[in-house]
Amino acid sequence: MQMLIALMFILAYLLGSIPSGLIVGKAAKGIDIREHGSGNLGATNAFRTLGVKSRIYCDYC
Fold first, then answer.
1. Both ends of the chain: CA-CA distance in Å?
2. Does the pLDDT at position 2 exceed 90?
3. Between the CA of residue 7 and those of 1, 3, 10, 12, 29, what are the distances in Å?
4. Residue 1 domain-assigned?
5. Which of 20, 31, 26, 8 is nearest to 57 (CA)?
6. Which domain holds residue 44?
7. Is 9 part of a structural domain of the chain?
8. Cα–Cα–Cα angle for 33, 48, 32, nearest 5°?
9. What pLDDT digit, counting tens, does each position of 3-24 carry?
């Protein structure tokens, strides 16, 4: 049981380290959102730069 919890923490850490904003920006419009808007990789900058659909993808992916 403790091993399962440890693996879940590791998996959550690894999934959280994936820059979804960068991936969505490249896939949606072929741009690096770090060069647009606030320069942040977050969902808010993706929303401001790319629109509503990109925000939803960043939030849930």
1. 27
2. yes
3. 10, 6, 5, 8, 35
4. no
5. 20
6. 19-60
7. no
8. 10
9. 999 999 999 999 889 888 888 8
